[in-house]
Design brief:
single chain; 337 residues; mainly alpha; 3 domains; four-stranded mixed beta sheet; 15 helices; 4 strands; elongated; binds zinc ion; BTB domain-containing protein
Length: 337
């Protein structure tokens, strides 16, 4: 066991309650901490009760639940005001520990300070510690936005989660497990969509095996029912792409378009030239990236610029973006979710 002094030191004399003792030993997660109980009791009825119940000053007060590290974070939280903005991932975790433990032990002022800081940091939208946080921290932050009914920040975190799954920054297996709508007391739709993107990330990870006909159930962390969802998505998205590739999106011609049939023909042959042949490096099932790539190419295609009126070209490109948006919104259907 290790014994350390808590960071909560030298409280004002008014804090000296909970009997005559200012310091008590706490045993948390098999680690001993010498803690200024006056500060804890002043702020928390839960700790006041604990100290009363454990009257023998020679015996440590055993705290069940938190780890020693989390308890240290709570004590740190009590010693700082204002709460500093977290500059890195570890500080985000510390802040979240403070928020959760202060809620568990009813330290209301600290809980509000921690919660407000978490929400302010998410609302910044540019904090690198938030933008690069791990899946676990993301889940904890999401829970706070749901508890305070902040729909804007909830949507922001869900969107960030989705994009970071596609860029392989976040763990899709963990997401598949935690994003199950039944785990959340919330509208299931956002979680179903997130789950769809997690399965899409899983499918893309397994794509080399799937496209070469190899088994994916060996050395795989996915359960058998999760593998069925991946296979559903793989086959559904292959069919979806064939359909998209054979039928370019229709668009509105502008009033200045003198030859609409010729205009449509030009659009159709350029689209098919890209979509039907293997001119895009992304796999066939990666509809999200393929449509993005086709849009990027066609937006700068000199042949279309020369042969289509500007507004017709703009409308056609917009229809392409709409298809991609539609796929992003409905990707969970492909995985039978
Ligand atoms: Zn036209």
């Amino acid at each position: 066991m290790t014994i350390t002094q808590s960071p909560v030191t030298n409280p004002p004399p008014t804090h000296r309650r909970c009997g005559s003792l200012k310091y008590r030993m706490f045993e948390v997660d098999s680690v001993l901490r010498r803690v200024n109980v006056a500060v804890l009791c002043e702020n928390s009825t839960a700790f006041r009760r604990l100290v009363m119940e454990n009257a023998d000053p020679n015996m440590p007060i055993v705290l069940h639940g938190p780890t020693a590290r989390q308890f240290d974070h709570l004590l740190w939280g009590l010693s700082v005001d204002p709460m500093p903005q977290p500059p890195n991932e570890e500080d985000v975790e510390r802040l979240l520990d403070v928020e959760e433990l202060s809620r568990r032990y009813s330290i209301h002022c600290l809980q509000i300070r921690a919660e407000t800081t978490v929400l302010a940091v998410i609302a910044e939208g540019t904090n690198t510690a938030v933008l690069s946080c791990r899946t676990n921290s993301l889940v904890r932050m999401l829970s706070i936005t749901m508890r305070v009914h902040n729909k804007t920040l909830f949507a922001f975190l869900m969107q960030m989660w989705t994009w970071r799954l596609h860029s392989k920054e976040l763990d899709y297996i963990l997401t598949i497990r935690v994003a199950q709508p039944s785990h959340w007391d919330h509208d299931p739709q956002p979680f179903l969509k997130l789950l769809g993107h997690a399965f899409y990330a899983a499918m893309m990870d397994l794509e080399p095996k799937l496209s070469s006909g190899q088994r994916i159930d060996l050395d795989c962390q996915l359960t058998s029912s999760e593998i069925v969802h991946v296979l559903c998505g793989y086959h559904s998205l292959r069919c979806w792409w064939d359909q998209i590739a054979s039928k370019p999106p229709a668009y509105m011609h502008c009033a200045r378009c003198m030859y609409p049939e010729r205009c449509s023909y030009v659009w159709r042959i350029r689209f098919r030239w890209l979509a039907e042949k293997d001119r895009i490096s992304f796999p066939k099932v990666d509809g999200i990236r393929r449509l993005q790539e086709i849009h990027r190419f066609l937006a700068g295609d000199l042949f279309l610029i020369k042969n289509m009126p500007e507004t017709c070209r703009h409308n056609a490109l917009q229809e392409l973006l709409k298809r991609r948006e539609h796929l992003l919104k409905t990707v969970h259907h492909h995985f039978d979710l």
